[in-house]
Write a structure and sequence with these properties.
Blueprint lengths: L3 E7 L12 H13 L2 E10 L7 E5 L2 E9 H20 L10 H18 L8 E5 L6 H7 L5 E5 L7 H4 L5 H8 L4 E4 L2 H15 L2 E2 L4 E4 L2 E7 L6 H8 L2 H13 L4 E6 L8 H14 L7 E6 L8 H21 L7 E4 L5 H9 L3 E4 L8 H8 L8 E5 L12 E3 L4 H13 L2 H17 L2 H13 L7
Helix pairs in contact: 2-3, 3-4, 8-12, 9-12, 10-11, 10-14
The chain binds adenosine-5'-diphosphate-glucose (ADQ).
The site of adenosine-5'-diphosphate-glucose has 20 residues, from helix 13.
Length: 461
């Protein structure tokens, strides 16, 4: 097996502490351990002057190699182009996307720095796997510097429709740079098709029946490769002592009411405002059920350096306060809104204690919370997943109650339907969902992608 080099903006290699990291870190760490590979990326730290100095650490059989970035790079590449331009645009929010030439230049410069710094670590037989939208140009920068290894790229967020993407001044440059990769992976056929539309209509590319894109002399394998959760591990966590204790605490705190849970990073793509309004609609439409439910939303702040994220935090605090003010009684509060992250075993216990998992992003590449919610359920008495039809996960999970997250009525109706759902129907839907998340878990995803990458013939000298 070739050695694997994973390159991503942040390096989150699992430390072997069990359950502290998400499935992605666990899966990539396992692959790196098997292949004796390296995980390279930004340390998250700032330095006065970029030197390209690499900090190596070795943990549990995996080597991580990280570099510090200058303040200007962090502002323009990370807070700027990645989080204020690409993230909103790729989640269909051109109203929030900021198109600043300095951001684009900083993004390009930082990718060149990543390329120059990582090159000495690459050996001739290594396979390189670049992760996500922070690094679109990296493969091309490596090619320009003579790297002939197999290089794959995986996009963790949606690919926007062609007409939205054309609003980005650098769209064509970015897509042309992506042609430096051998394999490009997307979570769903929908995102793959949107990419294909752009490559065909704007670059004159041709895509054959095996999803091989040809543009000029360059060929790229496109694949739909949906990421999974660490389902078996998450199910085991849900039965762990800390999960049980959490389950009991949460269960006792709702005193016989049905618990509805939402768990998300605090981000406008997650549809939290719309979710709160959908839940309020349910309270208004179903006065008899009002005090029979409690909604727990867990949403730790993210990307605090970007103003839009400070705004959404204020908006949600205001909305939760208003809904609670209008609807609460002496012994009942409709929404518990918690701005904090929790360890995975605690989350697993909360999921298992919840009658409904409410996962309603306006747009999401995949959404792993939906899969984790399913994995954590009690097989004898599973809860119901309500899932946005605009999450990538919806393509694999039609047995969830699929809703349009923009519609308060649809969210309200789905909550009513889930609460009334008989046990046999809950079990039937859950079994199919559980089989899916178990069979197509994060290890399956990693293998599917790396198999596709290893199947690409090496470039001739
Ligand atoms: P995210 O947008 O971060 O990921 P998601 O897929 O839901 O979204 O993953 C979030 C992870 O963080 C989950 O493992 C979840 O358990 C964890 N998490 C969320 N809130 C938490 C909390 N309060 N405490 C502790 N953990 C919490 C991006 C894309 C997604 C895509 C993933 C992986 O936006 O669409 O599914 O990458 O490709």
């Amino acid at each position: 097996m070739s050695r694997l080099i994973v390159i991503s903006n942040r390096v989150t290699a699992a430390t072997g502490e069990g359950g502290a990291q998400g499935g992605l870190a666990v899966a990539l760490t396992a692959a790196l351990r098997e292949s004796g590979g390296i995980w390279f990326g930004w340390s998250g730290e700032q330095t006065d002057q970029f030197t390209g100095h690499i900090n190596f650490t070795r943990n549990d059989g995996v080597t991580t190699a990280t570099i510090d970035l200058e303040e200007q790079d962090i502002d323009e590449y990370y807070n700027g182009y990645a989080n204020r331009t690409l993230w909103p645009l790729f989640h269909y929010r051109i109203d929030l996307a900021e198109y600043e030439r300095d951001f684009a230049l900083g993004y390009q410069r930082t990718n060149e720095r990543f390329a120059e710094t990582v090159i000495p670590l690459i050996e001739p037989d290594d396979a390189i796997w670049v992760q996500d939208y922070h690094m679109f140009p990296l493969g091309d920068e490596l090619r320009k510097r003579g790297v002939r290894n197999r290089i794959g790229f995986f996009l963790h967020i949606p690919w926007p429709p062609r007409r939205l993407l054309t609003t980005l001044p650098e769209a064509q440059t970015l897509v042309e740079a992506l042609l430096g990769y051998d394999v490009i992976g997307f979570h769903t056929h929908e995102w793959l098709d949107s990419f294909g539309d752009y490559a065909r209509d704007e670059l004159g590319g041709v895509i054959d029946e095996n999803n091989v894109l040809t543009v000029g002399g360059r060929q790229v394998q496109l694949i739909a490769c949906p990421i999974g959760s660490d389902a078996a591990e998450f199910a085991a966590l849900a039965a762990s002592p800390r999960a049980r204790e959490t389950h009991e605490r949460v269960h006792n705190s709702v005193v016989g009411r049905a618990l509805i849970v939402g768990v998300d990073r605090l981000d406008y793509s997650k549809g939290l405002e719309e979710r709160f309004l959908g839940y309020e609609r349910f309270l208004i439409d179903n006065p008899g059920e009002r005090k029979e439910v409690t909604f727990l939303q867990i949403a730790p702040p993210s990307r605090g350096g970007v103003e839009t994220y400070q705004r959404i935090r204020n908006t949600l605090e205001g909305l939760a306060g208003r809904i609670n003010g209008e609807h609460a009684g002496l012994d009942w509060v409709p929404i518990r809104y918690v701005n904090q992250g929790y360890p995975r075993d605690v989350l697993a216990g909360v999921f298992r204690a919840s009658r409904i998992g409410l996962v309603t992003p306006l747009r999401d590449g995949m959404n792993l919370v939906a899969k984790e919610y399913v994995a954590a359920q009690n097989p004898a008495d599973p809860g119901v997943l309500i899932l946005s039809r605009f999450a990538g996960a919806a393509e694999q999970m039609p047995e969830a109650l699929l809703v349009n997250p923009h519609s308060a009525e649809e969210i309200s109706d789905a909550i009513g339907r889930a609460l009334a759902m008989p046990l046999d129907e809950r079990i039937r839907r859950w079994q199919i969902l559980m089989e899916g998340v178990t069979n197509q878990d994060v290890i399956w995803w990693r293998k599917k992608f790396t198999d596709a990458l290893m199947a690409v013939p090496l470039t001739e000298e």
